[in-house]
Amino acid sequence: MSYFDSVSLAPADPILSLTEAFKADANPDKINLSVGVFVDDNGVTPVLDTVKEAETRLLTNSKTKSYLPITGSPEYARLTQNLCFGSELAKQLRDQTVSLQTPGGTGALRVAADFIAKNLDTKTVWLSNPTWANHGGIFGSAGLQTESYTYFDNASLSLDYAAFIDAISKIPAGDVVVLHGCCHNPTGADLEPEQWEEVAKIAASKGWIPLVDFAYQGFGIDIDTDAAAARIIAKSGLPVFVCQSFSKNLGLYQDRVGALHVVTGDSAATEKVASQLKVSVRTNYSNPPAHGGGIVTTILSDETLTAKWHQEVAAMRGRIAGVRQQFVDALKAAGVSRDFSFLIKQKGMFSFTGLTKEQAMELREKHAIYIVNSGRINVAGITSANLERLVASLKSIIG
Ligand code: PMP
After folding, report:
1. How far is the CA of 120 from the centre of ligand 1 (A)?
2. Cα–Cα distance between 330 and 388 in angstroms, integer?
3. Which residues does the chain have with pLDDT short of 70?
4. Domains of the chain: which residue ranges?
5. Yes or no: is domain 16-47+305-398 CATH 1.10.10.60?
6. pTM score, two decimals?
7. What is the C-alpha radius of gyration for the chain, rounded to an integer number of angstroms?
8. According to the model, what pLDDT value does residue 362 have?
9. What is the pLDDT of residue 13?
10. Which of 134, 347, 376 for mutating ligand 1's site (highest number of atoms within 8 Å of CB)?
11. CA-wise closest residue to 186 among 210, 157, 163
């Protein structure tokens, strides 16, 4: 008899357990396309030069390790609002925006989920089908129910815009709808700015509340274009939650840096919303960690460092786009029977390849190539060193 007899074994995280299996694989030529981190052509997740510079400055100038306010640093809030909404719109929205510095994008999502569960009239959050594997767990843990809306067409491996519009037009007033700001995870299929305009109109006419999960700003087209969803929706006067992450675009994965911006669309409601968000933070982690936020603040408050960071983001984005092209060209040159050119249009690190679960398992078991069973690959995991073997292995499976 143990005090823990009542505890059952939770299922392993499907993606993280693939990483474990990859680590344990003795094949020296193994390839990991399952993890969600950027790697360079040497297979390394680098520390950005601007981050190193900011850390050097922080180390020299830091005077205290005392607590940050519950909502984090006010300067961080202002700078990240500017990055998210653009300085002009951010200024217009300032008195109706509540911003929190959070532990990563996940922290922002979880605080938003708690706030929604405790304070809004709805108990339902809508997720795209498919979506990031952690969305259901985060909203579910806060006591919310999740439903899904149609997003992707598995036959053409692209956005099913008509079905998406139809689905979001049927969502009841007051419910919350999670939208991927850019670089949709897992499909890589994004909306155009005109399509976001239509989404904003539907949200306004139906009365549901948009939540933009914004984890890949700068990895799609560029820092400003990628912000179209957040900016178009906020500009339209709607209330919106934006969950921002700096894990990818600043490579700050382990520092846990993000922000939650809640634009209330109603200055009179802002103080009440801020007070309840603070309760959620206070009872979860009390106040945010300072180091990663300090890095972001140091970079975004210095024009030269910001310009350098934009170049570093452009280089990461360029590598991903280049790899997409090389991969498609190499598959074509190898005479692979299926047309993979849709991969070029997809944005960000992830793509749905259309490979079946059986094919994903065959890749893993016979070729030591790790992709998620859904057929999702992290394109950034393809390097000059592994491209040839990857293409040959796919050819042997697909024909
Ligand atoms: N949203 C999406 C869609 C993501 O892909 C991720 C990271 N994989 C996050 C949020 C959370 O990012 P973070 O590591 O900053 O918590």
Report:
1. 24
2. 8
3. none
4. 16-47+305-398, 67-301
5. no
6. 0.97
7. 21
8. 96
9. 84
10. 134
11. 157
